[in-house]
Amino acid sequence: MHERPLIRTHDSNDTTKKAVQTFTARPEQDQTQDPMQDAINLLMLACASLAALAFGVLLAYGICRAAFAVIRMHARSVAAQAAEPEAQSAPQTAIL
Q: Domain tally for the chain?
């Protein structure tokens, strides 16, 4: 019975050359690009930049609103705690 070898033997130098040619081969491109495509790319870049800036500003605004809401709740609770001892120490007099 004849067994096939697990490793195929071949010329590795030729295979390496083909692999290098495959990965380095680039389709021929015309170096001049359409001016309209350049304008569209510039517009898209500007819109993406403005959108990222707007998102950052809105995110910062939301974080500040949340932080100030937390501070406001804390200030109200501190004010309520400070008012309680004064109310308890004041004498209760009935005005008729």
A: 1
